[in-house]
Amino acid sequence: MSFNKRFAMAVATAAIIAVASGAARAEDDVRLRLNWMYYGSHAGFALGKDKGIYEDAGIDLDIRSGNGSSSAHRLVANKDSDFAYGSCGALVSLASQGAPITSVAVIDAMGTEAIIVRPDAGVSSIGDLKGKTLLTTANAGVNTFFPIVLENAGLSPADVKVVNVPDGALVSSYLQGAGGAVGMLGGLDDKPAEIKANGGDTPVTFPYSDYGVNQVGYCISAHNDTIADNPDLVKRFVGATVEAYKAAEADPDAAVASMADIVGGTMAEDEGKAQARSVLDVTLGVLYSGANTDKTLGLNVASDWADMVSLMKEYNDLDPEADPASFYTNDFVAN
Questions:
Q1: 73 and 94 in contact (C-beta within 8 Å)?
Q2: Which is it for the CA torsion 33, 219, 82, 140, positive or negative?
Q3: How far apart are CA 39 and CA 85, in angstroms?
């Protein structure tokens, strides 16, 4: 065979390989909806995007801020977003009302929700909140189990006034005591750090878990059509997310740095990074529930979901026939 023919064949072979490689590298455009604006708990997603973990999985990830867990899950239900990171309790509430969404992985395996009170308010027990005002945001997952906490503390929802404010104004309103409020509902993963970063004193906290609320924390939701029609995409997204959060476990400072690079502004400053790191540390501490004995990151633990759904049936008017297993799937979590 002449040199020219051998050269032509080599060029043709290289072209075929390039086309095949290009096809393998073709990326799916994926929108992830967060529960709120970026904070430390989201650093794993940022690390995965910044370091190419999602890209290696064939995903071009677009991370969007949100306006509460319920809102984030709704945006998946109406197909504005492909996946959402939000409260599992909020997911159950929406799915039980017909929203076509399912948890495909759990990130925060245990809830960090709490009543957060200013230390100058003279509140030393939940009972002291009777007749007082707390702040929250309309779509926050933290609202789901608040009535359970009150009942287990001997109060009724009518005993405590709850006022909704915009998420961006929650901490500032708390610090100012807006409307006579003595505290707010929020996550221990982010709000105490934000309060201190804005000049507030360390708050008094009443974790929901101390008042009979055993809940699954935050999960990844997907539309049921996506699960049925594009299971490979779901598997790749879940796999990349698990890999990203494992990388964040191994090097949390790198995760915070990635988030700072993406978000910029005050989050890229030393104080912003320190705040994000303290928040991320809380999240990394609740990646696995006590029932997740094999420490499988992302796993929807059946007993955890059963406990949470049981609470919601008793206190939140959830359909008594609701099957806990109908709200999640582990088909995409590698064991």
A1: yes
A2: negative
A3: 12
